[in-house]
Amino acid sequence: MKRRGIAMLAASAAAALVLAGCAGGGGDGGSAEPTTEPAPTFEAGTTMAELAEAGEITIGTKFDQPLFGLVGPSGEPEGFDVEIGKIIAGKLGIAPENINWVETVSANREPFIQNGQVDIVVATYTINDKRKEVVSFAGPYYMAGQSILVLADNDDIESEDDLVGQPVCSVTGSTPAANLKELGAQVLETDTYSNCLEPLRNGQVVAVSTDNVILAGLAAQNEGEFKIVGKPFTEEPYGIGLALDDTDFRMWINDVLEESYEDGSYEEAWNSTAGTVQPFVEPPAVDRY
Ligand code: GLU
Questions:
Q1: Residue 90: which residues within 8 A CB-CB, separation 6 or more?
Q2: What is the largest CA-CA distance in the chain?
């Protein structure tokens, strides 16, 4: 009798642990701060050792992209990319309040890395061979795809084929702007995606085209005004940009990403940000090129 009671207690304790484990892995929409390692040590001379010693890091991100990187009323950037940046900083022993956030728009990401204005860039940043000539990438940590945003009452545009010869807004220095030109659209280029919304409202362009998750954030921010049409028509693997040939740092960030997939912090980062609008998907495998 007593034995059975203990067994039952053990079973319910196990069930409670399983439940707690699920909640810890995300899904509760909470925004727990990522863990800051108390005193991590790194091999002397590495970027990790330098940053840990300095106790601060400068991270480039977007400031006007809801869900990924947006400076709201708090004055601090918020979003999935911001949370990824905090996870990396935490593993260096750097608390969120010691991160210097810098706005990197699409066109200045490579130059900011090249001239040392930022230590890393986490900014809806597609890994590609052209960019890899001047910067390095850890990741990918997310797979996006180019899509199309139109006014909610527009039924003329259903896919990228309908953009040929049409005025479409995108951003200078981005992969979607290059893809649109190749497609034969007339591209109106500006500096940030939020600056594409007014031209869409006033009919200067018929669509805005960039990554699906960026458009989802803009649509959610302006409920009822816009809609996303068609299916994503490119692959945009998001990476963390860092100095060219800093292989130790790149491999270490890849380790940090993989750990975050295992310990639930990646999923938590998603669920508390972009996960409010987009379902969670398993991250792609990191590419240790
Ligand atoms: N992921 C694309 C890129 O890196 C578009 C998004 C952006 O411009 O940030 O160019």
A1: 34, 35, 36, 37, 96
A2: 80
Q: What is the mean pLDDT of the chain?
A: 90
pTM of the predicted protein model: 0.88
Q: Provide the pLDDT for residue 71.
A: 97
For 116, the 3-state DSSP assignment is coil
Look up residue 270 and give its two tokens.
Answer: 């998603």
Work out the pLDDT band at 34, boundaries 50, 70, 90. confident
Q: Is the CB of 65 under 6 A from ligand 1?
A: no
Q: What whole-number distance in Å separates Cα of residue 135 and Cα of residue 242? A: 6
**229 CA distance to ligand 1 centroid (A)?**
19
* CA gap 68, 286 in Å, rounded: 20
CB 244 within 8 A of CB 134: yes
214-235: pLDDT as tens digits: 999 999 999 999 999 999 999 9
Residue 30: what pLDDT?
41
Q: Is 174 in the pocket of ligand 1 (CB under 6 A)?
A: yes
